[in-house]
Specification:
The complex is a heterodimer of chains A (357) and B (526). By secondary structure, chain A is mostly helical. Chain A contains 14 helices and 4 strands. Chain B has 3 domains: 241 residues, P-loop containing nucleotide triphosphate hydrolases (Rossmann fold, 3-Layer(aba) Sandwich); 191 residues, P-loop containing nucleotide triphosphate hydrolases (Rossmann fold), CATH 3.40.50; 78 residues, no CATH class. In chain B, helix 7 links the parallel strand 7 and strand 8. The chains are: A mainly alpha (357), B alpha/beta (526).
Chain lengths: 357, 526
């Protein structure tokens, strides 16, 4: 009970706080906040919005899982952004250049994407383990390199081709696609959503039931205690970074396998950064991340309705930003209060004068 | 002994504490404490580790506010919100652990934070030189603190509080970091300052020292004052019984259980500082046999921590070999060494022993993540871990409402019992115990000693590092003295006294037949 309260209270507080903040911002700019929020909620039932939200949730979910693996041991993998971009190009190139039976073709693309993401993450990981380079700096720089590399790879003299006025890689043949679930006019849900769910379950099992998850959590909680307990810090950095990169490599696959079938200039960027915010909001917990991803997707997609009621869509960005800021504060406050309460409880149950140590 | 002439009884007392109560999450650190300190006296506050002495002094120094009770200074009731309030009222505190910046000079350290008093230039320097005499500090204020020894650093700490105008000086376990010879020098300083009208509150649990220096004694037990005594008439025995409230636990082991079987064999172990300029461990040879407790004595910072961490594989040795039961550990990592049968009680349980926010059963897995009963292959065995944690809680008397509470919720003694219980599980062949009873209450201390003795009788080899010389002499079968990274002398725990050990620890040379020098110490760079 108390545990659950400690986990749910901070995000609830953060969301309420940021809604108030945005409400104030709306009032100041002369709009009616109730109108704006109402328009966002009613937008969910219109057109393909609901399916769009679910699809977007799946993508955000994978991104946040990738970030969360690093967070578990206080590794700040800001490079998810670059890792999935590189993985998307390579997966598209590999998928478009081979011919395999359905199923196997898709699997090869998935593996190629994971390997590409891991390889891109390996560079900052190796730099950190061997030279002590801070992963925040190196992954940010790798993000810059990823943009350059992907632009180079889709040049027409490399792997790209010109279609209309868009440059893109060769289209993946149908054997490499992943079918979705169609709702007719309501849109099509990506089949990769189920892979995302499986990833979440796998992540939970890994963190809570395996030795690797234990070592990861121990390293994050106290690197000194972990090393005294026989956890090899360098190995953990390397493995968790590679794993984080491999999952990051899958971020673009829902769209690539389910809709676009090619990497083009229309590539959806920025998901890696949203993943950081969602992992923070979800406290690295697979359930929490799912909720965070859903919230993010909802704000993104139903925010489109705001233009109709004459409110700038950017209010959504303000809301997302203020949620992240306030949730970090709220978690810390609640954590301290809970720990003190727990200590008092232990003291009470033992009889307080027992020992003054 | 002391100089009662300077104690003035007619003036209002320097400090009066009435009915002080302070609760912390989980414990009442102080309850209804009464303490009266007359002006110009050395007043000792005695109590076991964890009795609540330090909390009381933090309250008097304004670091913590009492939940109940009043403080009077020179007859006036005061309320301290911060240490600077206490300093304004003329109360200064010298902490057990020095709070000095090594890379600053004596003058900079003293003036830091008190720049408003005499500036930072010549005036400050003059004042420091003036006050230095009182503390017996004979160094130029321009000297870097890192070049000073422990005793001089302590004088700088005293100088800091004098500079801020303190008339009442709290010394929190000032002798813990000193060897016996330095203790005598400190006492000379204290007596000299007492004659000039300063009042001292001397916190200690070492009865001989209390009887040697104090004009009056107040005893604190389990957070409350249990009585006062005149140190000139009370015996150590009576004082000790007031402190403990029952019969004293003793670390002493009875008969020897040492066998011929070598368990740990360290040969020629060398470790350099990270920049490679000087050795931290220099050619250390060490043998621990089955059923034997080998104690390592040494002033802190002479390489004991590094020795332990190198044997555990947390630091990489420059050269030398480490063998455990004929198995070469030299190239193995920490986990493999633990799996080979080493249990490790780290000196700092918060930093190295526990995951504080995790439940007790989760902590049981740490260091055992590859072994039964807490793991099966790559999977954790959570049921096994929980059951075995229940066993530790019962067998080692860990006072907790359950195994699902976070480790941080337990008191220090109970946390340590959990660590000791964990490190003695899985049938280790060697236990490395670094300060196993540091900062724990008497009950936990007795239990931990008993468990170490029991394991030793069952054939466990124990490497014991401790700053508590009584513990070291009481538990060990062999004592090695460590100085500047080398094992320089052997001592026989049956005949050696803490004073002899103290001499050997400072490198002053042995004066006793109980200490046999085994290596020549080069004097010089330090």
């Amino acid at each position: 009970m108390g545990h659950l309260r400690g986990k749910l209270l901070p995000p609830a507080l953060a969301i309420v706080f940021s809604m108030l903040l945005c409400g104030v911002a709306l009032v100041i700019s002369g709009a009616n906040p109730l109108n704006a929020f109402g328009a966002m909620v009613s937008q969910v039932g219109k057109g393909t919005t609901l399916v769009d939200i679910i699809n977007s949730t799946g993508i955000y979910y994978i991104a946040a899982l990738a970030v969360a693996i690093g967070f578990q041991m206080n590794l700040f993998n800001i490079g998810v952004e670059g890792q999935y971009r590189v993985a998307a190009v390579i997966a598209a190139v590999v998928g478009g250049s081979i011919a395999l039976p359905p199923g196997i073709h898709t699997l090869v693309i998935i593996i190629a994407a994971a390997l590409a993401g891991a390889a891109w993450a390996a560079i900052p990981a190796i730099l950190k383990v061997t030279r002590g380079v801070n992963e925040v700096i190196s992954t940010i720089m790798m993000n810059g390199l990823a943009i350059g590399l992907s632009a180079y790879l889709i040049r027409r003299d490399v792997f790209g081709e010109l279609r209309g006025n868009n440059i893109r890689t060769a289209e993946i043949p149908e054997s490499g696609w992943m079918p979705g679930i169609s709702f007719g006019g309501g849109g099509t849900m990506f089949g990769f959503i189920f892979v995302a769910i499986a990833l979440g379950v796998g992540y939970w099992i890994m963190m809570n039931r395996t030795r690797f998850g234990f070592e990861l959590r121990a390293s994050g909680e106290s690197s000194t205690a972990a090393s005294a307990g026989g956890v090899n810090a360098k190995k953990m950095v390397l493995v968790s970074m590679l794993l984080s990169g491999a999952i990051a490599g899958l971020i673009s696959l829902p769209e690539l396998l389910g809709r676009d079938h090619t990497f083009s200039l229309n590539f959806t960027a920025g998901i890696g950064f949203s993943g950081i915010a969602i992992a923070l909001l979800g406290r690295n917990h697979p359930g929490g991340i799912a909720f965070g991803a859903l919230l993010w997707a909802f704000l993104d997609k139903s925010g489109l309705a705001l233009d109709n009621v004459g409110v700038p869509r950017e209010i959504v960005t303000i809301m997302q930003g203020s949620i992240v800021l306030s949730v970090v504060v709220a978690y810390e406050v609640v954590r301290r209060v809970e720990l003190a309460a727990e200590q008092r409880r232990v003291g009470r149950e033992l009889g307080t004068v027992g020992g003054a140590a | 002994m002391s100089s009662p002439t300077s104690v003035r009884t007619d003036d209002p007392p320097a400090v009066v504490l009435t009915g002080i109560t302070k609760r912390f999450p989980g414990v009442v650190a102080n309850s209804d404490v009464h303490l009266t300190v007359r002006r110009g006296e050395v007043h000792a506050l005695c109590g076991e580790n964890g009795a609540g002495k330090s909390t009381l002094m933090k309250i008097l120094y304004g670091m913590q506010a009492p939940d109940e009770g009043t403080i009077e200074v020179n007859g006036e009731q005061v309320r301290f919100r911060t240490p600077s309030d206490a300093i304004k009222a003329g109360i200064g505190m010298v902490h057990q652990h020095f709070m000095l910046a090594d890379n600053l000079t004596v003058q900079e350290n003293v003036v830091l934070g008190a720049e408003a008093l005499h500036g930072i230039g010549q005036k400050a320097r003059k004042r420091i030189i003036e006050l230095s005499g009182k503390t017996g500090l004979n160094v130029d204020p321009g000297v870097l603190v890192e070049q000073l020894g422990v005793a001089d650093r302590q004088r700088v700490e005293i100088l800091k509080v004098l500079y801020r105008g303190a008339k009442v000086i709290i010394l929190d376990e000032p002798t813990a970091v000193l060897v016996p010879q330095e203790v005598n020098e400190l006492f000379d300083t204290v007596r000299g300052m007492q004659e000039q009208g300063y009042t001292f509150l001397f916190i200690s649990h070492k009865l001989d020292e209390v009887r040697a220096i104090a004009d009056s004694v107040t005893v604190i037990r389990r957070g409350t004052t249990v009585g006062s005594a005149d140190p000139k008439t009370v015996s150590s025995r009576q004082l000790a019984e007031m402190m403990v409230g029952s019969e004293l636990p003793s670390p002493e082991t009875r008969e020897s259980t040492v066998t011929d079987t070598v368990v740990l064999d360290v040969k020629g172990l060398k470790l350099l500082t990270p920049d490679g300029s000087r050795p931290i461990l220099d050619d250390v040879d060490l043998v621990v046999r089955s059923g034997e407790v080998v104690g390592v004595a040494g002033v802190e910072g002479n390489g004991q921590t590094e020795l332990v961490e190198t044997i555990m594989g947390m630091r990489k040795a420059g050269s030398g070999t480490i063998t455990l039961q004929d198995k070469d550990l030299t190239k193995l990592g920490t986990l493999a060494r633990r799996e080979a049968g080493i249990g490790y009680i780290p000196e700092d349980r918060h930093r190295h022993g526990l995951l504080l926010t995790q439940p007790l059963w989760y902590n049981r897995i740490l260091g055992y993540q590859t072994r039964k009963p807490t793991a099966k292959g790559v999977w954790l065995d959570i049921d096994g871990a929980k059951q075995d944690t229940e066993r530790i809680v019962t067998d080692f008397d860990v006072r907790t409402p359950g195994i699902d509470v976070p480790a941080a919720a337990l008191s220090g003694g109970n946390q340590q019992k959990l660590v000791v219980g964990r490190e003695l599980s899985g049938e280790p062949v060697l236990l490395i115990a670094s300060h196993p009873t540091r900062g724990v209450d008497v009950g936990a201390q007795a239990l931990i000693w008993d468990e170490i003795k029991r394991a030793r009788a069952a054939g466990l080899a124990v490497l014991l590092i401790s700053a508590d010389l009584d513990e070291l002499i009481g538990l060990s079968d062999t004592i090695k003295v460590m100085l500047r990274g080398r094992l320089v002398a052997d001592a026989d725990p049956n005949t050696v006294t803490p004073e002899d050990l103290g001499s050997a620890m400072t490198g002053a040379g042995s004066t006793s037949a109980a200490v046999q020098e085994t290596a020549v110490v080069e004097e010089g760079e330090n």
